[in-house]
Specification:
- The protein is an alpha/beta fold.
- 44% of the residues lie in helices and 14% in strands.
- A hairpin with a 2-residue loop joins strand 11 and strand 12.
- Helix 3 packs antiparallel against helix 4, helix 5 runs parallel beside helix 6 and helix 13 packs parallel to helix 15.
Length: 393
């Protein structure tokens, strides 16, 4: 199969030749960057330097180095998100940030909170818990999947805004279906009905160009360990000025009421090295070129999805317009349709073929979610195609 020009002309440092920049086990085909990311060796080395500084002289580090290091990390990140530092806080992950927002939200009993059927499971559970605790009505809207266009997604979502919810929780990129949603249009429709908007952008940083100030939302949270190469335990929560005074971290600690960012910086004694080494992760991105990384990953995942759907005689979950660095492909019939069937197939691929990829039960059948990162190349997806064909008999 001839590769798209944007893939064939990519930097020769991508693909198998860059695999050594990561600690990934060499005898596995890793097609699941989207779940947990993969931290470059150079960034892990920078993290260890921060850990060593803490352990060599803990008191000096916490008194003199911790706050400047956190402020430097925020200052390095803010321009990448198109915002200033004032409304930006580092957190361990997007799920933690969503919980922090929901815990402090002062909505009267009987208020409607709207999620979608593709809302990330942990976030949906947080919404369920807080709704039950506070007497809110949790509603869910079904989004089209497979998805043909942004317009049909917007239409389905807009119809669910009657009656008007008090809060909507929107994914920027859905986890179970890998759709890049038309976020601005969906958020604008919710805002027009008077709703507060909380965006779970777990997958977006590093995958999409972000200018948070232009997105009609009240809170936006994202993970940096997925597509921005930080170690696990590094994410952010951006909050509009109107909501900062009433948005607090889950752990109230010594810097309470010292300002939005300061409260999130210190939430008790912890290893914050994954956040402190954020500038090193950004250096890794810059060394390879953010635009080049995105172009390679997008071209690769689209070519791989097309190849798999053609070989298996199935379909994609969405076309290129709704695809970032992940894509869904329906598996051939015969593998079942239940969660236990999905887990069994995933285990077979790992144990028998050393291929790591999520399998999700959707639309009465099974789908696989491909990720593409710079250490992947088409041969990885061809191995997946052959493994599934062998298992299908």
């Amino acid at each position: 199969m001839q590769r798209p020009a944007s893939l064939s002309n990519s930097s020769p440092s991508f693909g198998a030749s860059v695999r050594g920049a990561f600690s990934l086990q060499r005898d596995y085909t890793h097609l699941n960057h989207g779940s947990y990311g993969a931290t470059p060796v150079s960034v892990m080395a920078a993290q260890r330097i921060w850990q060593d500084k803490l352990e060599l002289e803990p008191s000096r580090f916490m008194r003199r180095d911790y706050k400047p290091g956190m402020r430097a990390a925020i200052a390095a990140l803010a321009p990448r998100l198109g915002v200033g530092t004032e409304g930006l806080a580092l957190v361990e992950n997007a799920t933690q940030a969503v919980n922090a927002v929901l815990r402090e939200l002062d909505l009267p009993a009987g208020s409607d909170v709207l999620v979608t059927d593709q809302t990330y499971g942990a976030v949906k559970n947080a919404a369920r818990h807080m709704s039950a605790r506070n007497g809110w009505n949790l509603r869910s809207v079904t989004l089209p999947f497979p998805a043909a266009s942004a317009e049909e997604i917007i239409a389905a979502y807009s119809a669910a805004l009657d009656p008007a919810p008090a809060l909507v929780i929107l994914d920027h990129i859905t986890s179970p279906t890998a759709l890049v949603l038309p976020l601005s249009e969906m958020a604008e429709a919710a805002r027009a009905r008077g709703a507060l908007v909380l965006v779970d952008g777990a997958h977006a940083p590093g995958m999409l160009d972000l200018d948070l100030g232009t997105i009609p939302c009240d809170w936006y949270t994202g993970n940096l360990h997925k597509w921005m190469f930080t170690p696990k335990g590094c994410g952010f929560l951006w909050t509009t000025e109107a909501q900062r005074a009433t948005t607090h971290p889950l752990a109230i600690s010594h810097w309470y009421q010292e300002g939005y960012g300061a409260e999130f910086e210190y939430v008790g004694t912890r290893d914050a090295s994954s956040q402190l080494c954020l500038p090193s992760a950004l250096d890794f991105i810059d060394a390879h070129g953010q635009a080049a990384i995105r172009a390679y990953n997008n071209a690769l995942v689209n070519e791989a999805a097309d190849m798999l759907a053609a070989r298996w005689g199935t379909e994609r979950g969405a076309g290129p317009a709704l695809t970032g660095h992940m894509a869904m492909v329906r598996l051939p019939d015969g593998f079942g349709s239940a969660r236990e069937d999905a887990e069994a197939l995933r285990d077979r691929l790992v144990d028998d073929f050393r291929i790591q990829i999520p399998i999700n039960p959707l639309t009465g059948t099974l789908w696989c979610r491909l990720s593409a990162q710079i250490y992947n190349e088409m041969a990885d997806y061809e191995r997946l195609a052959e493994a599934v064909e062998r298992l299908a008999g």
